[in-house]
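Teaching assistant here, posting this on the class forum so everyone can see the example we discussed in section. The complex has two components, and the goal was to see what a joint structure prediction looks like when all of them are supplied at once.
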Amino acid sequence: MTTTLESSTEDTRPETALGASAPAGLGLGRYILIRFVLIFPTVFVLTTVVFFLTRVTGDPITAAFAGRLNAQQLHERIHAAGYDRNILRQYVDYVGQVFRGNFGTTLTDHVRVTSMLRTYGAATLELVFYSLVVALILGPVLGTLAARLRDRGADAALRVFAILTYAIPVFFTGLLLKLIFAIWLGWLPVDGRLSTANEINLQMRGHQSGIDLIDAVRASSWSMVGDVLEHAILPAVTLGLLTTGIFLRLFRTNLISTLDSDYVLAGRSRGVSEWRLTTRHAGRPALIPIITVVGLQIAGLLSGAVLTETTFEWKGLGFELTQYLQQRDYTAVQGIVVALAVVVALVNFVVDVLAALIDPRVRY
Amino acid sequence: MTTSTGRKAGLRQLVARSHGYQRGMLLAGAAITALVLLVAVFAPWIAPYGYAQLRNSHGYFGSQLHPSGQHWFGTTVGGYDVLSRVVWGARTAVEVIVAGTLVGLLVGTLLGLLAGYLGGWLDNVLVIVSDAIYAFPSLLLAIVMSIVISGGSSGLWTGILSAATTTTILFIPQYFRVVRAETLRLKHEAFVDAARVVGAPRQRILFRHILTNATRSLPLILTLNAGGAVATLAGLGFVGFGIEPNSAAEWGYDLNRAQSDVAAGIWWTAVFPGVAIALTVLGLTLLGEGLNDVRDPRLRARRRIRGTATAALTAPATSEHALLELQDLHVRFATDAGTVAAVDGLDLTITAGEIVAIVGESGSGKSVTARAALGLLPDTASAHGRILLAGQDVITAPRRALRRLRGRDAAMVFQEPATTLNPVYPVGWQIAEGIRAHEKIGRREARQRAVDLLRQVGIPDPDERVRYYPHQFSGGQQQRVVIAMALALGAPLLLADEPTTALDVTVQAGILDLLRELRDTRGTAIVLITHNMGVVADIADRVIVMQDGRLVEQADTLSLFHSPQQPYTRQLLQAVPRLGQSERPAAPGGARRSAAHAGIDAADEVVVDVQQLVVDYPGRLGRGPFRAVDDVSFRLHRGEVLGLVGESGSGKSTIARTIAGLVPASAGQLTVLGHSLVPARESRFRAARRGIGYVFQDPTASFNPKLSIGQSIAEPILIHDRPAPAEVRRRVGELLDAVHLGADYAQRYPHELSGGQRQRASLARSLALRPQLLIADEPTSALDVSVQDRVLALLRELHDELHFAVLFISHDLAVVDSLANRVGVLRAGRLVELGERTAVLTAPAEDYTRDLIAASPVPDPVAQAARRAHRAAQLAETA
């Protein structure tokens, strides 16, 4: 739920950690290489942070089971899991594991975190995808409107709307929407991804991709597709609104900045229409930093997804996370958290490369 | 841009500067935040019951009761009073805000400052760590923290600590980024360099100069931080890691408990806490955004002028062949200081095939006139009168008609080609777009026309280059591309607003030739706006002189230069420096000196000794270093004025900065005031710094905007002498008198002074410790001609009195001619020629120097015409 207001489009070239922004003409290949190399220290830092935070006051087993097991049993379990070894040794092992893609095994039901990612990750992916669709349509459109109608009533209203979407906690939005549309009006289902009947149906078909929309389309059943979308609306809007607000504000600020620029003035002096000026001339330079922000928003979306899934009982990673939390299965929690952080790092890499692809100052 | 004297914008002024809904946002945000704060502080008195209270004297409250007289907000499933829990929750929220923001602010700001200023490996490491943490999903981290700190549900402080620590960790990168970016920008500002030249210790620079100016975005981040802390705490509560009701009231926890209520249609247990969270974060964000908007001039809401443009009642167009006719034009701007008249009653006619120059100093209204002609004034301006372009009145024309006029009946060329071209589209696309905005032609045909246009303006390889992006062209070529864009539709009138001011003199000559060619071959009329009288003499047929928005004099070029009628015109012409008209002696002390070349004369004390100096700028990733100064040698003697001239990239500024110890030398020998700077040893050099004074080019950036003029001037004194405050005041007053400003200027702030006044104050600061060496890096290039004249006269006066050596950097040969004893010519890092001023500037030995002199236009049309012919012959010879 952290947000950022990148308001500067002065230097919109993508940044690498070393040597500030990519100088003009660095070339795409080089930039991608540098950016790729930077993934490793990033993941390293993340793993280190989580590891030391969780080990600062002891170990996951004591935290989970203290009070439920006696000292002997605790000690056995700790020894079995290797938590009584030298802390540095544990650290090195753990980092090694993470880099090999092993995020650990849950305490309560002995499931490997990686397989959990596969099973439930698709559901979260679907939710995040729907909400991004909502946000990427609404955000730039409303942001453009606000920038063009700058300083007038509509602009004010839109900005307050954007701030509200950020201020109202995503779970509250979810609860409200649920209350209004599902309970009072009864238009939409209360929770879940599918009606029970359809769920059983899909399970019987086997070979699921995990993404219900795809599965429903494959099953060539329009009623099922409809069902999927019906269930998706409220969660997608809930999570999507949060990001919409951020995109709206960002797009508005960037667009105002580019609309004020000399090259837009020059374009106007050549007789280019206002519409083209806004969409083509000012739009593209304003869009580039937003792509980068999308990457950063994935983190916020994941946090929001945890809360949204809990609100709507959407059985994805977030939902599972809260279940494990309630059972005090901290190895699971730690594993999922680190895995998600790695995902965020990878997504940011992809996004940065995309932004560089679009920005000609990097390519030539 | 305020009219008040004294400290810059306090809170009251901040509010006063805001308008419309931005003021509403700011005030609403402040009000809500204040409300939350008050509720938090006075919770024990406001809340009807305790946060964990289940009963009173009348018995248990009962669970899930509707809102009623006893329980305004109803009760929860657990039997608590909702209103009390909401009120006490405010206190918890405020506690988490305080805990979760202060540490982050301090640590993030400090780290950002250090990383930005020191750079190197520290910077790289911190940026990597910061970027890694920045992208961490906050709630997840909070959950991990929660486990660590408490193992689960918790008491008040452990609960707050989880949210607070998480928020702190996650927001440190935000403060870090913002402060680092600002520090990086400020590091290169002139006033920071000024402090370094004087020898200010690092802490002083970091805290007094950089930190004080780097805080612009901090209030916004702070409020986002605060909002984030509240939201994270609530999120934790919602997923079941909240604070137990017996320890404190927390809104998120209550929402968690309310989930099951919702399914049963019970709304009051969820809505009230939810609204509380939303309102708190809303108030904080409104406050932050409101503050940010007001402090950032780009985002601030602009005033609009009341009333629309009105058509004038005067007679229609007088001349039939007029391309452009202005009748009694008035243009007013709404500014923070009230309504300003930029153009105050202007009449003007332009006919086909003539080149008309509009000259004036800053504030004369010449640029505004050009913009108005195409209807390109911003919303903050309003125009009255008539502007007739191709038969239409631009002021009253409907938008569609205006759009048709632009580009087709008149086109515009701006000053900075780099910003006039859109960096993310190829130039061919940009040219073609201008064409297709008016004509329906296919893409291929438009591309072909673009290629033709590029060829016409002299771009080599146009078929290839049409696909290039702007940054792949040089400055001069970029301007040619801009001209090509303007010509795309064959407009008969070209408005050129300072088209060559940002270009080197040789490049400028090329562009002027191109403009002349356009007039000769296509009959294009050109309105050239400039402050450079040499350019006017070179190219214009007719000259219009403007001052304060009014037309002062209008005449054909010859008449204007040889017999100016108005006193202002005469003043203006007299202030322009001319080559060969200097009265300065060729060497200090007049006849005593023989023709001195590079350092043979050892009689005078050598202040700066440069031997085979090499300065390299390190290359970025994968690129080699850039050699800015390549084997330069010269000596500067006591009391001598040495002028270094050259075009951009010649290395003249680098030499100045290296001598001042701002840039490390890579090789060679450099001795300044007896101290060797190769290798650079700052601790030993510091003492010598009192002997160096530096004047920078940009008057706006030369002074720390947060310090008064007196404080800035006193800085060298405070660093090296440290006398009593009364003594400091006396000396500052003396210095201000010496530069003809007067002691009362000491209390003023930089933004209250004009450019010329600031340069004089800059001189005062540089002379504070009676230096033996004054380095002046293009000190008058950014000033109006008459102001330049006065500043140069002041410099001459002070030099005569104090006998310091001067290293004077300029691109303007005439200016150097008015001051220097000796002149050095630089090109691409090498010293091409060095000698007596009169020798170098009238009978140069080197071709390059000859080219440079030939390309610099003189403010005399007859002489300039002769020079142009001569130069053309020269170029034809060498071709």
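For the discussion questions: DSSP finds 33 helices and 22 strands in chain B. Chain B touches chain A through 113 residues (CB under 8 Å). Think about how each of these relates to the inputs above.
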